[in-house]
Amino acid sequence: MKQHAIAIHGGAGTILKSSMTDEKEAAYKNALQAALLAGEKVLEAQGSALDAVEMAVRSLEDNELFNAGKGSVFTHDGKHEMDASIMDGKNLMAGAVAGIDKVKNPVSFARMVMEKTEHVFLSGAGAMELARKLNVQQMHDDYFFTQQRFEQLAEIRNSDKMQLDHSDKKFGTVGAVALDVHGNIAAATSTGGMTNKKFGRVGDSPMIGAGTYANNASCAVSCTGHGEFFIRAVVAYDVACLVEYKGLTLAQACEKVVNDKLVKLGGEGGLIALDKAGNISLVFNSEGMYRGYKRQGEDMYLGIYK
């Protein structure tokens, strides 16, 4: 039996200490802790890494502090368009959804796409048609309404500007990576997108290889940042390739991609990654990243700033 481990993130970006009260910081850390414990509970019962990342991300989707699920930001039209993906490192099976609304836990719907269809990536109206067919849990629009998110939209609705979650440039994405006792790894990512986004814009979160990737032969990765740059740099897969084909350590691969390649492109954000040996890397080139990890038999780590 291998040692199990799990890591999570709740978004990266210019998270300013000046706008963070003690109460708010405690709330974020409590939410991160709850998500880690939800995933670890699965791993402690010798469950799969896939189940663990799903449960951890569901916990974050259910918390309105994070831009995913319940706390998703508003589009220009005052609606919610959510994206999510999940990948199993054991067999490279993956599922993803984009531009969906009303679904309580997009990550679980992404898993259904993986397990109940022959497809990987579904979007918009067609995806919602499948959601109804599969009896995916849906909520009324009121469930997703939060005053703070609505005010964020109101501030910039009459401009062409899109905003990355908070006005202090926080990239609103949540994600998890895990290693189970059977030696398998998995990754999952979920987001509510950008405030005031138009034209059905989709970021990296639901894109396998860009925002999410898992392969037992290399590592599991979940990203958070300015999606356009992460797509162009194929960030998650690039990290895995450097590990598998170039023989870099997990830490070296993450540093190379986040603090060299992305920086040269002008991309801001970060990622969490984990390999079969239980090595964990939480790397970001922004002011901060909501993050945490827990290895079997070790104390939990939680962080926000550098």
Structure notes:
The protein is an alpha+beta fold and 306 residues long. The protein has helices at 22-44, 49-61, 106-116, 124-133, 141-144, 147-156, 227-232, 235-244, 250-265; strands spanning 5-13, 82-88, 93-100, 121-123, 170-171, 173-179, 185-191, 212-214, 220-225, 269-274, 280-284, 288-295, 301-305. The longest helix is centred in the first third of the chain and has 23 residues, at 22-44. The two termini are 34 Å apart. It is globular, with a radius of gyration of 17 Å. The protein is built from nine helices and 13 strands. The mean pLDDT is 93. It has one domain. The strands form two sheets. Strands 1, 2, 3, 4, 5, 6, 7, 12 and 13 form a nine-stranded mixed beta sheet that branches.
